[in-house]
Amino acid sequence: MKIIKVANYEEMSLVAFSILEEKLKLNAALNIGFATGGTPLGLYEHLVAANVNKEITFKDVKSFNLDEYVGLSKTNPNSYHYFMFDNLFSHIDINKNNVHIPNGETLNIEEECASYERLIKKYGGIDIQILGIGGNGHIAFNEPGTSFESVTHIVDLDESTRQANARFFENINEVPTKAITMGLSTIMNSKEILLLINGKKKKEAFQELISGNISEQFPASILHKHHNVIVIVDEEAYSE
């Protein structure tokens, strides 16, 4: 696990962009795993700008999102499908047929999970996976107690996770209680992982991560078992 300490959110976003830009220039047909939430937004802004300026292209990129709420339509502003198109995909030259996000509207969730897992394998796996971390150590929607062997599955969202995401909704009651998420073993099968951590609220999670303790009660700790993880952390999250 390589840790890169940066001054602030802006530098974290720029360093992450530089890493991804280099990968794209070496392999224009990357399979990229994307995350949602506030953490990667700065990175996505840099990707859009570089694409508009024709410095990089996404024409041959295949994207796979980590997760999606169950029960929200693709046009719902709080769905991750909407989030990704609003903040990235609608502004770059990616082939929309190469965009893959779990279908939260499906009537057969178990089949959707199995199908998504097969899809990732069909395209040869994820080359680089972008991750954030929750205050309780969750990555994607893999809450504490999730098996390290888990593949794409449906999850009951932890109350702390729903509270953290409530700011995007009118009130806590509108936050879905279930989601489809890549499993921990799915994420670990990525060739490279880029973990972004920023802000005082993530300080305890970062300290637990670097403690080296590996436990299913802190899902992100599994990343210590991966051979190629880069953690970019800002001063606020890094400070003891």
TrEMBL record:
Gene3D superfamilies, per database record: 3.40.50.1360
Record PROSITE patterns: GLC_GALNAC_ISOMERASE
Known catalytic reactions: alpha-D-glucosamine 6-phosphate + H2O = beta-D-fructose 6-phosphate + NH4(+)
Pfam families assigned: Glucosamine_iso
GO biological processes: carbohydrate metabolic process; glucosamine catabolic process; N-acetylglucosamine catabolic process; N-acetylneuraminate catabolic process
InterPro entries in UniProt: Glc/Gal-6P_isomerase, Glucosamine6P_isomerase, Glucosamine6P_isomerase_CS, NagB/RpiA_transferase-like
Keywords per UniProt: Carbohydrate metabolism, Hydrolase
Residue ranges annotated for the Glucosamine/galactosamine-6-phosphate isomerase domain, each copy included: 19-229
Catalytic residues of the enzyme: D67, N136, H138, E143
Cellular component GO terms held in the UniProt record: cytoplasm
One annotated GO molecular function: glucosamine-6-phosphate deaminase activity
Involved pathway(s): Amino-sugar metabolism; N-acetylneuraminate degradation; D-fructose 6-phosphate from N-acetylneuraminate: step 5/5
Transmembrane segments: none
EC number(s) reported in the record: 3.5.99.6
Family to which the UniProt record says this protein belongs: Belongs to the glucosamine/galactosamine-6-phosphate isomerase family. NagB subfamily.
Role: Catalyzes the reversible isomerization-deamination of glucosamine 6-phosphate (GlcN6P) to form fructose 6-phosphate (Fru6P) and ammonium ion.
Protein name according to UniProt: Glucosamine-6-phosphate deaminase
Gene from which this protein is expressed: nagB
